Amino acid sequence: MFQYHCLNPIASVGLDGFGDNYRQTDDFKEADAVLVRSAKMLDMELPGKLLAVGRAGAGVNNIPLDRCADQGIVVFNTPGANSNGVKELVLAGMLLASRDIVGGIEWVNSQKDNPDVGKLAEKQKKQFAGSEISGKKLGIIGLGAIGQKVANAATHLGMDVYGYDPFISVDAAWNLSRTIHHIQDVNDIYRNCDFITIHVPLTDGTRGMISREAIQMMKDGVVVLNYARDVLVDEEAMVEALNAGKVKRYMTDFANPTVAGVKNVIITPHLGASTRESEDNCAVAAVKELKNFLENGNIKNSVNYPACDMGVCTSASRITICHKNVPDMIRQFTRILSDAGVNITDLTNKSRGSYAYTMIDMETRASEQIITKIASVEGVLRARIVK
Ligand SMILES: NC(=O)C1=CN([C@@H]2O[C@H](COP(=O)(O)OP(=O)(O)OC[C@H]3O[C@@H](n4cnc5c(N)ncnc54)[C@H](O)[C@@H]3O)[C@@H](O)[C@H]2O)C=CC1
Ligand SMILES: O=C(O)CCC(=O)C(=O)O
């Protein structure tokens, strides 16, 4: 029986997928696996029992990935599972930025007791007029699951789309409409686009990427959309550019004191993935990944350990080992097994950066003694009998 804990509410259609061999616990310390959305785990103590974290979503900047890896805790996310939800909000953001739709709605509400509201509206409406997005240049920074969907949808809305992503995956490149211009220098996006939207993960390399200098390069009257993470943008510089009339509107999904209430900033309260469909997709995907890991030891869509998959174990036993990516580990593991007279039927070893993962299937049942010996090899972070 495995136990899981939810740090945020997780869609029941996902949790139902756990089945009878799983029990939800309110006690984080008891959990074999944790499910999380945006809860900040960075300062949390990680219980010794915890084997895996399932991020029901894309961004993992709320999770201490290296600390997890060092404790042999495998962290998963659910690539693309909420990308359509975010894409739709970005499209809404572009439309809301193009005309003063929000101002118009607020004006009508302010006239709710005025019997002449209809007549007055015809006079007042010109102050809320704007322009169309069709024919405008859209620059997209980051062409992953969300960026590629925004790109394709925007071309269907008649926009001229420019995409920048030096690390684009082959799949994402295949999925992009041929009409999208491939940009090699992000400054070309800053200099030429009417709308700029950012869809990159928050990392040390992307923090503050939309810098004061980047904003200065942008066209007068540009609309900037940020549905990725607030700290990707130098928001103090953004507010100055809004006040100076350089940036027409800043659309963001992240409320904070720097931008809240600032004129021409339209903020949604982190709603990108808050659709029934996205929440369900993420929950189902995260639970599937966790089950496959807990029951079979397989790793798919991890963000701190390598992908590693040996399917369902058909041998007598399977052990898995999270360890440092250093020489001589396999020799030490196989030596311990051969000393115990164990015959290996299958073995896979994969590495990712400083960490590695080894799966070993065996002809005889693994003993606690063997696992204790393997766990004591220097560089081993966690050894587990899966079967
Ligand atoms: N507002 C919301 O509710 C949501 C926000 N997000 C945010 O959006 C981000 C992106 O999500 P996905 O598209 O699903 O992730 P993804 O991993 O599919 O795509 C990210 C893309 O950014 C590219 N990239 C990385 N560094 C770059 C750089 N310096 N310049 C240009 N491109 C770069 C990568 O190559 C990749 O193609 C997430 O990391 C998260 O922070 C994601 C989902 C929901
Ligand atoms: O779960 C959420 O609502 C947040 C979604 C998000 O920001 C992400 O997936 O990166």
TrEMBL record:
<keyword id="KW-0520">NAD</keyword>
<dbReference type="InterPro" id="IPR006139">
    <property type="entry name" value="D-isomer_2_OHA_DH_cat_dom"/>
</dbReference>
<dbReference type="InterPro" id="IPR029753">
    <property type="entry name" value="D-isomer_DH_CS"/>
</dbReference>
<dbReference type="Pfam" id="PF02826">
    <property type="entry name" value="2-Hacid_dh_C"/>
</dbReference>
<comment type="function">
    <text>Catalyzes the reversible oxidation of 3-phospho-D-glycerate to 3-phosphonooxypyruvate, the first step of the phosphorylated L-serine biosynthesis pathway. Also catalyzes the reversible oxidation of 2-hydroxyglutarate to 2-oxoglutarate.</text>
</comment>
<dbReference type="InterPro" id="IPR029752">
    <property type="entry name" value="D-isomer_DH_CS1"/>
</dbReference>
<dbReference type="InterPro" id="IPR036291">
    <property type="entry name" value="NAD(P)-bd_dom_sf"/>
</dbReference>
<keyword id="KW-0560">Oxidoreductase</keyword>
<dbReference type="Pfam" id="PF00389">
    <property type="entry name" value="2-Hacid_dh"/>
</dbReference>
<dbReference type="InterPro" id="IPR045865">
    <property type="entry name" value="ACT-like_dom_sf"/>
</dbReference>
<comment type="similarity">
    <text>Belongs to the D-isomer specific 2-hydroxyacid dehydrogenase family.</text>
</comment>
<dbReference type="InterPro" id="IPR006140">
    <property type="entry name" value="D-isomer_DH_NAD-bd"/>
</dbReference>
<comment type="pathway">
    <text>Amino-acid biosynthesis; L-serine biosynthesis; L-serine from 3-phospho-D-glycerate: step 1/3.</text>
</comment>
<dbReference type="InterPro" id="IPR002912">
    <property type="entry name" value="ACT_dom"/>
</dbReference>
<protein>
    <recommendedName>
        <fullName>D-3-phosphoglycerate dehydrogenase</fullName>
        <ecNumber>1.1.1.399</ecNumber>
        <ecNumber>1.1.1.95</ecNumber>
    </recommendedName>
</protein>
<dbReference type="GO" id="GO:0004617">
    <property type="term" value="F:phosphoglycerate dehydrogenase activity"/>
</dbReference>
<dbReference type="GO" id="GO:0051287">
    <property type="term" value="F:NAD binding"/>
</dbReference>
<feature type="domain" description="ACT">
    <location>
        <begin position="318"/>
        <end position="387"/>
    </location>
</feature>
